[in-house]
């Protein structure tokens, strides 16, 4: 026998190819073992995964659609579940191999182990390629098809502006109350929400009831009936009417409600809207909370809205003493902004704004003396006891004239517009309502704390003050409630400015 000095007691020759190898139970090298045994047998190297382009979700068998980002742990787990023979081996490692995002290919690199002979474990690395096939999910199919919704929520408010729905839209976005809707349609006096399930519609009705006073009415329509199984198919509709009262509206309470609220003065203002109407008498700072049941038992409309506000110039402020939270009662001497320099007509008003107004400021209020209201409850009041002016909120005309762009923006729901395009005057009114809502958010820190504001890429110019700056534009309002950067959220999805609905 020929002596081979390179062989030691720690090395042997492979029984198949004669390669020098360390001793092992099979007396074979790794290459010869792989040639005889393939541990990847039974594991598919090619597979198909379904993807819905509308909602960007992947199909997880049998009928579950899940949202996954490319090269995410969720997508990796979904792909591994598609490989049937993977449970017969031990998975050591798995990862993605980079592919072009538009290639419709997903590649995985897998490392597996398996015992092939007695006390012999073989490890192998291989690739699996998934072809992304486009398939429409059931939810998107219902949206694309006609007459597939099961429940609808119709929200209406009989007012001449859309400030309430602009605020309501931001609350829906903040609390993700729209996630179950299959379509949102914009109508003349409100919005229509469509759902594939009745329970989702009831959830929206409960959400709206918790944030605003309303009355609802349910109805159902029979679509089909199966006489053999005794089952019927219905469509459900929920009609919701919001109270026609908004923040800063002037109210004249009916005698029954005023008496039930502790004999409060009938002429009040609405200083807040929650799940009830909060009213205040500006002469005494007395407040009243009108519940939903109380209002709809004796409904009434606002005497005047913010569109009837008049700008006044503050001449003198004299506090009277009573304080309720941030409101301070004061006697304020004002003059109409349009009359300053023309005549000496002044007005005395008792107001709740004594804590924020100073001589030289501008304030918005209702001109009671020269207004004519068509209201029975107001006509029953004694004219001699009525104030000439009721002040509502402080104004910042000098800040507006600086034409400063906004560094923030709002997100909007993806709504289906009406079939007929709005007329030019209607479009201008809609833009004016939106601008008024943005100013309310700027001037009221308490109001904007309830919504989400996002950082804007470029400052947006204000619509109504696009004129050149005049001599007063250099004046800075020291007490203007500027929106700080820490109040703004990062706009993570800059390409899509609207909230998508499934």
TrEMBL record:
Q: Which residues form the 60S ribosomal export protein NMD3 OB-fold domain?
A: 309-394
InterPro entries attached here?
Nmd3, Nmd3_N, NMD_SH3, OB_NMD3
Q: Does the keyword GTP-binding apply?
A: no
Q: One GO term of the cellular component aspect?
A: cytosol
Domain spans labelled Nmd3 N-terminal = 14-242
Chain residue ranges for the region called Disordered:
453-480
Q: Name a biological process GO annotation.
A: protein transport
What's this protein's family per the entry? Answer: Belongs to the NMD3 family.
Q: What is this protein called?
A: 60S ribosomal export protein NMD3
